[in-house]
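Fold Annotation — chain and its backbone

Fields — amino acid sequence, structure tokens

___
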Amino acid sequence: MAASQDLGPGSPELVVPGVPAPAPQVGPAQASGLLGWIGVVPFFVFAVLFLILPTAFLMVGAFQDAQGHFTLDNFRQLFQEGVLDAYWISFKVSAASAAGGAVLGSLLAWAAVHGKLPRWIRPTLMTFSGVASNFAGVPLAFAFICTLGRVGLVTFLLKKYVGINLYATGFSILSFWGLTLTYLYFQIPLMVLIVTPALDGLKREWREACDSLGGTAWQYWRYVALPVLWPSVLGATLLLFANSFGAVATAYALTGSSLNIVTILLYAQIRGDVLHNQNLGYALALGMILVTGLSNGGYIWLRSRAERGRR
């Protein structure tokens, strides 16, 4: 005798004893959700392997000595004069390159978006910015040595045709200003990419309303545009600071050990032959994570504030 099993409203199905019931079918919505989870699995695997686990390894190693015993001596060594100087130089280079990149990048983005330039300027600038913001490391260092080194192209042209001996003024590509200038090559394009959407968010109606009420250009920027833009600009500046603070390949290829920034000191502690102290290097890296984490956290908070302001 057949038994009836109700699978849903108005959907009775006969179930014969001894015969297995048919497998439930997966609907389109369930299949789409399953495919969505499959799509994000590589991201989570990548984050665990290359972000979470290395950070946890650094945190554990920072509290250990060479024999694996618990110690706080690594953090006490962070307050040595040489280590503090390295952090201070990195802070100055990052702050200078972030400030310069923020100002120049914002002006470039404004000129492309609201400067009434030919239409081909903006896509060309955005394409170049997308490439230049990722151009770093040994190729960038080599390019600047060939351009502004002692026998670089610009150095030679200035001396021959303008009569300016760049290195007689005290400038050096291996110095603080040389490294800052090199960082600006990828900081300015990155600022252009970040701040352009914020400039696009300035509605034309706001400027027209200000003009209709007799407002000047200064009043428009002072009371309308800048209050809307400042969270995006400040947040992007913090992101530039973090981007510069964590850079190592460009600085190491350009200056070697002549400029004692914290990333080069960290490399020397972990991989060097003279200053080899891995656990101190882990503590240095943990300090860098704290600085860059605060900068990125400030950027995320300011970005959310900017999005609420534009809405």
Q: What stands out?
A: The first helix runs from residue 28 to 62.
